[in-house]
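Hi team,

Filling in the usual template for the complex we talked about on Friday. All components are listed, including any nucleic acid strands or ligand strings, so the model treats them as one assembly.

SUBMITTER: L.P.
PURPOSE: interface mapping
COMPONENTS: two
RESIDUES: 278
SEQUENCES:
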Amino acid sequence: MHTTQQAAYDEIIGIARAGWLANGTSAPFTLLYDDVKEDKPGVDANGLPLTYARVSVADIDSERGCIAPIGERTFEETALCTVQIFTPPGDGRTLSNELLQIVRDFFRASTSSIIEIIQVGPPERIGQEGGYFVANMPALFRFYQEG
Amino acid sequence: MAKDYTGNAATAKRLVEKFGRAVTVYKRSRTPADAGKPWQGPTDTPADFATFIAVFVPAAGGGLGKILVDKAAELDVTITQEVILSPESDLTFDLNDADSILDGGRAYKVHVREELKPGDLSLLFVLGVTG
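RESULT (copied from the run log):
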C-alpha cells in the first residue's frame, strides 16, 4: 500500500510510543521525540537522573521498485527508527537491558498496514554519556510511495 | 563562609544593560499541538517570554565563548553569535529554558547555553545562537 513519508513516520513513532508507554515497568518513563523541545525528567530520590528515551527516524534508502509511467511508479523507502534509552548508571545495565528487551518485543510484535518492520536490533550499547548509561534499539522498516 | 556574589551579579547586570540592547527571549511551549502525536511538535503559543538587555558578540574567543562553540560543534551546529544576558534582568524567566530570541525583526535559535555561576547566584548567561 502506498503512503506518505509523514504517515509512515507517524506509524512507526506511534508504535514506539504505544509500546513504550505500555511497558512492563511500574510507571511509564518519559519519551522524547526528535526535534521537539521537551524538558528532560529530573532526578530521583537518590539524586540520580530519571530514565527516559528518545525516538527518532532517519531515511536510509529510496529505490524505484517497478517500471511504470511517472506518477504510477512505486518507490521502496527504507528508514531506521531508533529508540535511545537513557538510564541511570551503576546497576550493571539491568534496567537498560530490561528496557531494550521491552522495545525489541513491541517492535517485533507490531503490525501495520502501511509499514513493514524488517529488522529489529541488534542493540547498540553506547555506554556512559553524561549522567546516563545509553543504549539504542534500532528498527529498520520500509514503506512504499507512489511517484 | 561562602562568598557573597550579590555585588558581582549587580555589576554584571549593570554592564550588560549598559552595553546591550533590548531583545525578547522565548521559551517554546511543551504542550503538543496534537496530544495523540506529540512528536509533531508543540503549539505555536510560547510557554513564556521576557524582555532582556542582551549583548551580541561574534562566536569566537576563549573562555565561555570557546566552550559554547565546542559544545555546539558536538551537535553539528556552527553558532554565529553569542548572546550575553544577566539573569538579574528578569528573575521570573529561567534562561535555561531559552529557545529563541527576537532581536528587532530578526529571529535567532538558541542551540547551547552556558551559565557563569561560581556560587549560589547566577552572574551571567551566554547563549549560542544561529540566525
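MY TAKE: The mean pLDDT of chain B is 91. The two ends of chain B are 44 Å apart (CA to CA).

Thanks, L.
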